[in-house]
Fold these 2 entries.
Entry 1:
Amino acid sequence: MTNTLQDAGMSRRKATKVIAGAVLGAGLARPAIAQAITVRWWYHFDNPQHTPAELIAKFEKENPGIKVQAESIPWGGGNDYATRMFAAVIANNAPDCALVKISNQARLLEMRALHPIDDMVRGWSARGDIADDVWRVNRGADGKQYYLPIQYVVLYLYYRADLLQQAGLQPPKTFDDFLAAAKATTKGDVYGFGMRGGGGGHDHWGSFVLGAGANFDKGGMVSPQALAANRWFVNLHREHKVFPPSAPTDGFRQIVDGFKAGRTAMTIHHIGSANEMVQALGDRVSAVPVPRSPQGTGWTSFGDESNAIFASSRNKEAAFRWIAFLSTAENNVAFNKLTGQLTITTSGARSWDLHPQRFVDATSQSLPIATVLPDRPQTPDFTRTVWPTNMQRALLGQIAPDEMMQTIEKHFNG
Amino acid sequence: MSQHSSRRDTVPLTPYAFLAPALIITGLVVLVPALRTFWMSLQDLILYRPDAARFIGLGNVIRAFGDEVFWISLRQSLLWIVLSVGLQFLLGFATALLLNQSFWWRSAARALIVIPWALPSVIIGLMWTWMYDFNLGVLNDMLMRLGLIARPVAWLADPDLAFYCVVLTLVWQGFPFFAVTILAGLQSIPADQLEAAEIDGATRWQRLRHVTIPGLADIIMTALLLRIIWVANSLDVILLMTGGGPGYATHTLPLYAFQKAYSAMEYGYGAALAVILTALLMVVVMGYVRRSSRGIAT
Amino acid sequence: MIDRRTSLRRTFELHVPLAMIVAFALFPYLWMVLTSVKPDADILQWPLRYWPSQLTHEHYVTLLARTSFAANMGNSLIVAVGATAVGLAAAIPAAYAFSRFRFPGRRALLVGFLTANMFPIVLLILPIFVLMRMLGLLDTFVGVIAGHATFAIPFSIWMLTSYFAAIPIELDEAATIDGASRLQAIRLVILPVAMPGIVTTAIYIFITSWNEYLFAMMLAGQDVRTVTVALQLFIGEFSIQWGLLTAGGTLVALPATILFLIIQKRLTGGLTAGAVKS
């Protein structure tokens, strides 16, 4: 009797230890016998039915001795993923590598949480398959490379071809075209432009305000052309009423669903939602790059995603092998089939068949004006709270448009 | 009474032994982290610049008092608590009284009432946001079919409506708690007292007023107190439905603290906002402890 | 005649208002259930489609066969039962002490437990995360349950103290005079009489733990992931799996509702009245 009890207690303790050990990773207490290195990797997929299991199996077969322990982290509008990541860094429990976005790079670097990968990239034969521009966009503020790009999207203008045709209009190329198209298609239950005023909607605003010359350098938000552009943008809602009244708090879900349901004639999003839009609207949906300012300038958001290796990792070489594997030609294509985004590799893009061609074209035509927000510690707070709060107040007439721009200027430049 | 006091004399350690497990666990998982957060609230601490942290004493509190958004959030927090808890309580109380009678579908009604409470906030937030949706929401569609509104309403984007829409969601989520708690409390009201009152000719209202409510006073007060604390700190539903917007229309103090701590990563300031909220709740609690009846806390 | 008047009165004073309350409580849930059996194309249709063009169970099949949802439900069950057990085990003796003894520090401790509940958890989570890391409890059931103890114990202590305090002290004194030990008095007198309160408290802890997100998201990894976190995984960066989400939401409400359906019979009158009289 006593023996059994002890056994039970023992095995439970042992089990707990094994579980704890397994999850805490090999870095903590690596068993002396085991040769295998375990690489912990964090990711987030939009579709919970998709798993990276096949890619991992392929990698482990090609790289005996390395095991990949992949963990999906809830995205939670970006909040959960970032909170979890920063908490792990603070508690010295970061994974070996993880999916990351440029907007967090400055903060991670300030915390000295990342490991530069310049040397490893130099020795990586497939590095040339990723365009130089992409490498450059992802470079750290100190000139070193920390991010290994894995996929991207570019925001462009979705439009209802049938509605524009009925109005006798071409897809808009300039801001003036855009206003005309929005006004012409706003009637009855339909609004001209599904604008995203909730968190993350700065991309929409950016095309019209950053595109007209506003920028994040000192004074860049309060220059005459920046203020004028912002007034023009706010007036789309207040004066021309081409946004649905729900625009101030609409998120990506509302703008995509509203467009799919035929309640808006245009909106700005990327190729990630192309397939579901075609499913709902068929040939009636098409896309062009976002319109440009009267001066010919333009801005659209480059939606980046990379892998990075954490400074605390004890398996940096193995981690690099895994993330390099994911960014290599056919593996990268397979990865993007799971995420619905675009391959970062030049070779993979040549035979791309995941999305209808017109959306791939709209993406590549947008590349010349596609860029990311400045890689600064203030950026995440700008996109999550400063921009939405002040944009909403301006759209609702609670503050003047200029006041919004002054607040943004202050946020970035004191 | 004499027995009571003699017990106190003879076994001075017994109550502490009874309290030990609760004290040890709570001390470890709440007190230690709370003290750490309190300590951080006294610092100018940016999460991504841990080395640059410096002690500033009450600097964060002073900063809050000069922060317009703090006052907006505080005012809305008070309204949020009063409305949400008040309406949850009234609806829950009425539900409990109804569910305490016997009728043929009572078991079913009791179980169905619990459903809103049995759903996670993530589902509640998404479903209600979707029902309120301007384009595809069932609320607009039904109200228009009924002819109550002529055009769809942007419920969550209208600063005058958004706050009350979120309150309604929270009332929906929380009233089952009061219904269940008060229902349990009703079982402790001796049936013979109610019968005696009825025989004496008391109307139903009089019985409610003079027998039921006094008998429930303790439970009601405790439930209110615990709910106030819970609602005061709850932010997940707001975060999912409006993110605090439009503008500051649905900002509450914990939401603002959350934004400051995680979005701006000004953890020191966020922690200070949380400490202020705790201090204010403390005032409510002390008021309760002073006034509490039947000696729960005397 | 009298019968009909009474039954009419009962209809308006009981059945109609209660039916309205039940409808209010149920409507959003029913809307979700209805969505979960619609084909994807119906879900976001405009004009709104109330009744599915065809009933489908595809979302449930996908949910249970192609995601980890079933395992997550199991994890949630372990966490919620664990939190309820820990909460009650710690709170029953504590509440007994608060309701039956007068001792130095009593009031301060009682208020202290409440204060523990007052601090916004979002700002406690980071230090708790670091603490759990130090204790090696990250990604374990014990860690999540300990996290849930932060609300379970203080809440239970307060609820139970007020339920216990409502029981006349003569009852357990009578038992001790009859030769029962203090523990026997608790077991034989206090617990049975306070059962409705204990059941209510247990339901509260179970439901709160079942629905808790922040601790579960931060402290639990993939292996002990609970159902709330799994639901959050259906809300991606660029798309929402409405079918899976509503199917999951439909299922996630069931355990607590069934639990309550079973134990609500304990919430029937007369218990205390009888006990006091004896």
Note: The two ends of chain C are 41 Å apart (CA to CA).
Entry 2:
Amino acid sequence: MKRHRNRFSVDWEDKVGRSKNYSGLLLAALIALPVGSVSAQTANTVKLGMVGELSGAGAPSGTNWRDGARLAVTEVNAAGGILGKKVEMPEYDTQTDPQVSRALVQKAIDEGVVAIIGTVYSGSTLVNMLVAKQNSIPQFVGSEAPTIVERGNPFVYRTSSGAQKGVPALTPYFKDTLKAKKVGVAWVNNEFGRGGRNVFIAEMKKAGIDVIIDVPSEQAQTDYAADVAKLKSANPDAVFVYMNQEESARFLIEAKKQTLPMPLVGEVTLTEAKVIELAGPAAEGAIAHVGVTATATEVPGIAAFAKSFEETFKRKPTHDAIKGYVGVWSTKYVMDMVGKTDGEAFSKKMKGLCLKVADHPKILLDTCWDDRGEMSRPSFMVQVKGGSPVVIGAVPAN
Amino acid sequence: MRGLSLHRSWRLLLIVALLAAAILLPLGQKNYFIYVLTSWLIFTIAAMGLNLTLGYAGQISLAQASFMALGAYTTALMTLAGWHWLVSLPVGLTLCFVVGLVLGYPALRVKGHFLAFVTLAFNTLVFLVLRNEEWLTGGTYGLSGMPRPEFGSFSTDKQLPFYYFTLGVTVLAALGLWAIVRSPWGRAFKALRENPIRAESLGVDTRRFTLLAFAIGSAYGGLAGALVTPLVQFIEPGSFGLAHSLRILLMVVVGGAGYFFGPFIGAAVVILLPEVLRFTEGYYLIIYSALVIVMLVFVPSGLIGIFGKLRARFWPRRQVRADMAEGARLP
């Protein structure tokens, strides 16, 4: 009877029934392993948890962030550590996965870190900052999404200004430097592009400048001939170009081909190394506002940072590297001021805190945080000259 | 017959022992470990669903993550609006069941790789809708701050109670699947996988069972999603992309497709193994991938198949299904 009933089936109970014995063992072995590996924190060290995108799509940002932080830890230890104790920085790879990043912030806190350094991707930060908040652990992040500081989390602090601050910083440049009366906008029609374009149009309205032409383009568009022709015939005093890297490069190439005469001004991406590499000589003369750049070598702190970064890692630092570096040094400065590793006290101290380069040289630029963790510090206007971005002016903190 | 009942009581004892281990394991552990264990249970549920669709009924689906998304977003939107998790659960499951039923229709016409592509397209479609319909889903920034359920005085706000809550749900889900695969439906699913033409000739309504396999498997995905929402308390479209469907597929294949306990082991390998290997730092993902390749080369029937092979060698019993030596033949 039994046999007959199972005629169709795989008879899994026979196959599996006894093997559960072993599967249970395997499972237990898998599960038991990590338990023993949790190390106890020794009293003479201070642990910072570097949680970052070391693999996956975010790896270019995350590894730079990590290397900047590593460099800072070496320097902090050479300068006597935090509260006179040696700094250790265990690293946690999020695989650019928000859920993994949440688990790892938890792991770092379980292992006794006193602050979290990371993450860079906003999607990850939005998840894992809840955990740091629940445990009252201060967290320096490299993310720039506006929402991060709008959630009423007193333990999260930026290491660069939020996106909503970048585009408005361009307004004085259009108004006072270029003395533009009528401008055009060329933007990529995705979430990133639309957000920037909306802020720009609102800003121009406030400044009394007319936006006479508005040219959206598609993500991954290859032919910009029509877009550039439209801009050329409208003939504004300047064009605001807000696209991702590849699109920016293609746009610049077409603009060069049709000899678009007016200045092309962007925000961060337009003068990035990748765009310059792709656009070649067509990138020459492009102008952009950048939050922080390793090319601002007339700032002594940044020059010194860029030099030792290049010596240590044999490549040029990106802005993410500067952010990781600033994150670790800010933790040190503030913890030394507070005199203990307590998160609540740290959070109180951070509210409206300003760190001046004169007193805290490794902060690189005078930096303030408001009571939400948003940061403001001077930024730069750069222009591509001779194939690399050169600083043409400083923008005061806004 | 005596041998059989002895076998059965041993099995029962083992299940009880494993359950006791699952209850005792997280005690005294740190939050991170409990969190990882909880996500192991949740992905086990998702993999159980795919195991039914793929392992038992032989219909390949690359859309399991999108059903997790449907369950997760339904739960998130409803609990954020003040409904209890228990109210949102049947809504999410019904939605997944119905959508799974609809997605099953192409499976009546296409098989194998073509079916894989249809379901892949569906997964991408769900991802795009979640990303673009910002008014409902919050777009790329997702939804956050979903409350964890409370049952009278039992609050799941802390990690440990939430783990036990998830364990309870997992046990119920496993019992449900147990009942399904042992029922006439379960045998019809297997018949469908092995030889659909013969199944039909024996009176199995293949059309109905193909659709059911999809719908029930999808509902399990939805259940897993409904648990992800309160666990992570943040959901965004990126967590339900194609890569995650492939991960669930990997769990089913590595664990052993068509074996009841395959998903438990598969999810353990995919979720817990990388965590165990983290001590190797920069190499952990490389080692993990290499191990998965080795497993698939040497034990194509999944890890659970190892034990069957070992037993067949050292302790041969009656030959039941020689063709299962290579695991369920997947399309």
Note: Residues 72 and 329 of chain A are 6 Å apart (CA to CA).
